Amino acid sequence: MRPLVITLALALGAVSCASSEPYDYNAFLDHMPRSILVLPPLDESPEVSAGQVYLSTVTPPLSEVGYYVFPVALVDRILRENGLPTAVEMHAISLSKLSEVFDPDAVLYTTIHKWGTEYQVINSTTQVVYSARLVDARTGRTIWSGRGSAVQSSGDGGGGFLGALVGAVVNQVATTVSDPTPDVAHAAHQRLFFNKRNGLLLGPYHPKYEDDQRKRREEAAAQGPQP
Amino acid sequence: MSGLRRSGAVARAGHAGAGRGFRHFRRGVVLLLCSLAFVSCASRIYNWGPYESSVLNSLQDFNRRALLEEIDRLEEHDAELRRLDLPAMPGFHAQLGYLHYLAGNGEAAVRHFQAEKTFFPESSVFIDGMLERVK
Known about the structure:
The structure holds two protein chains of two kinds.
Chain A: H1 2-18, H2 26-30, E1 35-38, E2 42-43, H3 50-65, E3 68-69, H4 72-81, H5 87-91, H6 95-101, E4 106-119, E5 124-136, E6 142-154, H7 160-177, H8 181-193, H9 209-223
Parallel strand pairs in A: 1-3, 1-4, 2-4
Antiparallel strand pairs in A: 4-5, 5-6
Helix pairs in contact in A: 3-8
Chain B: H1 2-38, H2 51-59, H3 64-83, H4 92-103, H5 106-119, H6 124-134
Helix pairs in contact in B: 2-3, 3-4, 4-5, 5-6
């Protein structure tokens, strides 16, 4: 139980230290979007399906925050059909061109840093790390950015070395049946987007949108104008 | 030999499973505490059903049989949403309309594209482009 306590203490410590400096939501509030176009992510990980799993898992949480999210599989197809085979080309499209085809209020640019499961001798670790930047489609201004991450380790169960070894084998077999990465990605999205301290503001389709806007605008006014 | 090894692994797997229950519990506690510390109350607006797995499948290449199965699954979920009077999720009707378009069902494609526009006017410019394609 001790490692758990230490991890928690560190996590809480990190939160309380960082919360002394509130996130600047002025640009977000000035360009409050209704709709978000999620572009296929740049991928620094060796995992080939990372981009696809990212796109399929990111729509529900973004929608649950209260935004209209363009249909990601469709967007991917349309961009490919227009001669943009990879995310690198897609990220280079001008905002005016994106507006012409999709007319989004904001565009989400994502880079995946780590993605997938690594099998060590006695355990396996599934990790998801990415950074995301939300850009106002009219002005090109970044209105929000953040880093999503989550880790799930397995194989630290009892039974000594041999038990752990078998645990790793069992986990590996189980993983081929159901990939844990989507669940870990969900956890990362949840922690990033729904985080009250520096997550996304609630969008227009969220039942508490009006309340959140009023509160956030009051907070921003209390902090004074930002440079 | 491999059969022997496998049965041994299964026997020990049962033993390892005992430790796993605790680990799941512990993971549950960690997630709970994390969610208390980081995450505000996430009330659900939508009922997602098979949408996410359908999106993942259609991002990967799939054959005609899989396409028709996908359409059936999403149509079933659409009927369920209407029966329970629940709002459609962003992108749901556009995705379903596109699958119908790929399957050659022009009429159903148009119906779902228009539903996307009705539920979410933010999609108008994009959906009008899709409707042009279907024509």
